[in-house]
Amino acid sequence: MKQERLIHIDILRILACFSVLVLHSAAQYWYGLPVTDKNWLIINSYDAVARFGVPVFVMISGALFLDTNRQIDTKKLYLHNILRMVVIYFVWSAVYGLFDCRVYDWSALKPADFLLEIYTGRYHLWYLPMTVGLYMLIPVWKKWLEHADEKDVQYFLLLFLVFKIIRNTVMVLKPMEWLKFLWGAFEFGDMLDYPGYFIFGYYIAHYNIAARWRRWIYVAGILGAGANVILGNYKALNTGLPNGEIYDSFSMFTFLTVTALFVFGVEKVSKWKVPLRIRAVIKEISMATLGIYLIHLLWMEILQSQGIDSMMVTPIIGVPLCALICFVLSFFCAAILRRIPVIGKFIC
Questions:
Q1: Is residue 338 pLDDT above 50, yes or no?
Q2: What is the distance between the alpha carbons of residues 291 and 332, in angstroms, rounded to a whole number?
Q3: pLDDT tens digits for 268-283?
Q4: Whole-prediction pTM value?
Q5: Mind listing the pLDDT tens digit for each residue in 155-202?
Q6: How far apart are CA 348 and CA 345, in angstroms?
Q7: Best CA proximity match to 247, nearest among 237, 258, 238, 239
Q8: Are 114 and 101 contacting, i.e. CB atoms less than 8 angstroms apart?
Q9: C-alpha 113 chain-centroid distance
């Protein structure tokens, strides 16, 4: 019964992970092509649709860690979850640092150069310290949720919706000076960005979404993905420059898509009857998603140097094909690395 209940978590995790690879596959030529090129419009469309990955990852964590049936020991949280993320961050910063050093003359490379490469890391590693910050707040949120009723949680999510999602969307669509001044008076900083998605994941998993709302949520999710594509391409063509602000993690249109996917996972996918053998495969891939996320850029850059990338064929096929190849290669690497005794869990 527990496996059936968690099938949606595994499938959402895999889908979110693959969407990140699609995004990074699409990004290979995002800055290199003129925005008027039809190939650029294709890769930008993939980029716009695939933006749901990180918010869904965060919502999964919120649904699992804030579950009222799960007891959280602060000491164990720091020694297990937080320490693991910190170690993984430095391990992979070092790996990518070494990988980047291949372009240098090793005889002229100073220790400070290598340390700088480690410190700089790779752009996708930002997810790890962000996750550490969320984990540090879990004991506070757990205490709050023990005493909060549904309306209290809805109030927090309303603040998230108005002062993060709507605010960001309006500022991108219509950034008039008076509006900038007005919204600037309501700056909540980082309090209402990924913590908002973290609590939102808990809310959808903990409180049933009424059936009469689900159909509208699914329609809104599809429309949101379409709006990301249309507006993302329109703004780029209008300015002559690549611009992804309209479809970032906190745009209204991405938010609608994220909400629809998560509600569908909780309300529909969780009820799927999956044969045990297929369930075992899904579980294995799900367990490897962190490793896939960490490793995939290595494969993407290695393959691109050999001419295997999102433009090896028409990008309509090339973007998802490149993502799929890197996903499979990264999965096998992650499956092996995480099985290394003792240190495997501190690698991926």
A1: yes
A2: 10
A3: 999 999 999 999 999 9
A4: 0.93
A5: 999 999 998 999 889 888 876 666 666 666 666 666 778 999 999 999
A6: 6
A7: 258
A8: yes
A9: 30
Instruction: Single out the residue of 286, 332, 289, 327 nearest to residue 7, CA to CA.
Output: 286
Q: Within 13 Å, how many C-alpha atoms sit on residue 202's CB side?
A: 25
88 contacts 346 by C-beta, under 8 angstroms: yes
- The sign of the torsion formed by the CA atoms of 264, 227, 131, 114 equals positive
Residue in this structure with the two tokens 């995002």, named with its chain if needed:
30
